[in-house]
Amino acid sequence: MEELLQEINEPIADAHGVRLLLWRDDLANPDLPGNKARKLKYNLAAARQQGHHTLLTFGGAYSNHIAAVAMAGRLFGFNTIGLIRGDAPAEGHEPARLNPTLAQATADGMALHYLDRSSYRRRAEPEFLAEQLARFGPAYVLPEGGTNALALPGCAELVAEIRQQTSFDALAVAVGTGGTLAGLVTGLAETERVLGVAALKNGGFLKAEVDALTHLAAGRAFNNFSLHTDYHFGGYAKYSAELLGFIQQFQARHGVLLDPIYTGKMMAGVLDLIGKGYFARGSTVVAVHTGGLQAWAGWGERFGE
């Protein structure tokens, strides 16, 4: 396995006396990289234990989660159904119209079905889920983003893996649905903290989401994390020349490609916070590269290379 912990030598970190490291979870599992594999680990075990042969889940047309569930189905012998937010490709033109994410999901065996936005908003309602299971047959239902109580222990294991290689004062992670952050929160020791960098605009609701998840998984809320909502660069999956410039420069300096949806924002936020003196001098901060690099193919299709 490749070395997963990488020193990130940045002048701003040196000036503020902060040791900055990057955990390469994008390299941890070549077949199913990043935090999605961790979220799926115990869900797949539960699906198998409950006798399910099919996974049913939800996501946008460029979703890392959709890509991961389709690949997990192929690797571990599950049928997969993806309910995709948005209109279906024009009839008779579907193969040519699929974006790279959905084309790969189809290649991995996922059956795609499309929901208009009104229907998609009902994705967590029990009645709506019952309707889908009546339509498609028995299936293990995974929520959008793979975030539920069973996602947390897989993410919590990451903390112990990092701790085996280095002591640290803080972890940093990008936040979409809050599941990865919540899992890390439950795995921390008393003196450790984690900061989450929201990838979407108006991410103030995420604290309540994390609290609800940790209540489900651990029976209580935690106060060992913080959320930072000022680094969304215009919103979820929005084009930002500033962010793309940062990603390009970071890759040139460190040989690491970040993605434009999550990890680019997280790393930009961490460096900005270091510059603002957020971390005490002498701190060790480990930023987590959660993968998501499959998004670049869809990004190029939408915005150009």
TrEMBL record:
Stretches assigned to the Tryptophan synthase beta chain-like PALP domain: 12-291
Query: What keywords sit in the KW lines?
Result: Pyridoxal phosphate
N6-(pyridoxal phosphate)lysine modifications at:
36
> Which GO-annotated molecular functions does the record name?
D-cysteine desulfhydrase activity
InterPro entries linked: ACCD_DCysDesulf, TrpB-like_PALP, TrpB-like_PALP_sf
Q: Which cofactor does it need?
A: pyridoxal 5'-phosphate
Name of the protein: 1-aminocyclopropane-1-carboxylate deaminase
Q: What is the scientific name of the source organism?
A: Hymenobacter glacialis
